[in-house]
Amino acid sequence: MLEQAKRAAAAALEAWRRAASARRVRHNAHHVTRAGLAAGLARLDIAPGDTLFIHSSLKSLGYVEGGAPAVIAALQDAVGPHGTLLLPTYYLPGGTLRAACALPGYVFDPRRHGTHMGRLPEAFLAGAGIRRSIHPTHSVSAWGRHAASLTEAHHRAPSIFGMGSPWQRFIGCDQAKVLGLGISMGPVTFYHALEDAMGDAFPVPVWEGGTRLLGCLDHDGRRWDVPVRPFDPEVAQRRIDHPGRGDLRDYFHREFDAAGLRINGQVGDAASWCIPAQAFYDHLRQLASEHVTIYASAAQLAARPVSQPSPHARA
Ligand SMILES: CC(C)(COP(=O)(O)OP(=O)(O)OC[C@H]1O[C@@H](n2cnc3c(N)ncnc32)[C@H](O)[C@@H]1OP(=O)(O)O)[C@@H](O)C(=O)NCCC(=O)NCCS
């Protein structure tokens, strides 16, 4: 009873905080519409039939009339009825894979557990026609043509991001692109697909110890024990998404621009970018062979200057 009351009070407080925050954005930011967002996406070469893996910051877009659902509608407009949207709807209690593994008795339940990945993934999860993969820490959700095939059997994959995972299937889709809406090159899960594909051949030992099993329920309430491998926390401190690694984010930004792989543009007010998935993956593999990974030290970056700009590079 007390627990229930505490939860209700916390939810009411959070709803109040969110309403106040949305009011601030509405008063201070430039207003953008679904049609304006769709026009921005077209300038990033997002086209009908595309399959997009999207990482986002809602507040970077300006004040979106209609909120996160309007952004999702604009993305659906941009890829059309034959396109596919894929969003990170990870539920990560404790904030990291390692913390989730340490939580006694933790079992992921897609009927109860939402996502910690921001307002756009939250709204996507609540929307119609969504498929959600079953995974204790890195459940993704998809809408559109490839939604079922991208999300199926994630819980049976031997690793989170490798063979049999949504990422590996995503790379194989026609017109697959990674889209960053108002985010840097930091919070991009796609990098881990290469680590899981290369395993111990990846040049940095990114994992702490071996594989663990974490529980999750599927949509029918059946329990699965799913293999996960936590990241070494010391190595994660050097990773591109760590606040202290602005140098690495800047390097990757310039490198993918120079290679002519990153298309940059404004979506609403947000500096945004898009990179075709197969070319992204191939370039990450090439960089890894030259000792540049999302964990590279300043010395490793200095030893491999950013590529010469390609004639195809676009501002
Ligand atoms: C962390 C992160 C989500 C923060 O971005 P953000 O814009 O502050 O947060 P959200 O996208 O959740 O948007 C919420 C904010 O939008 C703003 N907002 C509310 N209504 C809005 C509207 N109609 N229009 C625009 N902004 C609005 C509010 O400021 C709100 O902040 P609040 O939480 O204080 O209420 C983002 O920086 C990020 O890293 N995104 C990628 C996450 C990811 O995919 N991670 C996996 C990679 S490993």
UniProtKB/TrEMBL annotation:
GO function terms (MF aspect): aminoglycoside 3-N-acetyltransferase activity
Annotated protein name in UniProt: Aminoglycoside N(3)-acetyltransferase
EC number: 2.3.1.-
Keywords, comma-separated and alphabetical: Acyltransferase, Antibiotic resistance, Transferase
Family to which this protein belongs: Belongs to the antibiotic N-acetyltransferase family.
Source species taxonomy: Bacteria, Pseudomonadati, Pseudomonadota, Betaproteobacteria, Burkholderiales
A Pfam family of this chain: Antibiotic_NAT
The organism's place on the tree of life at top rank: Bacteria
Presence of the UniProt keyword Phosphoprotein in the record: no
Gene Ontology biological process terms in this record: response to antibiotic
Catalyzed chemical reaction(s): a 2-deoxystreptamine antibiotic + acetyl-CoA = an N(3)-acetyl-2-deoxystreptamine antibiotic + CoA + H(+)
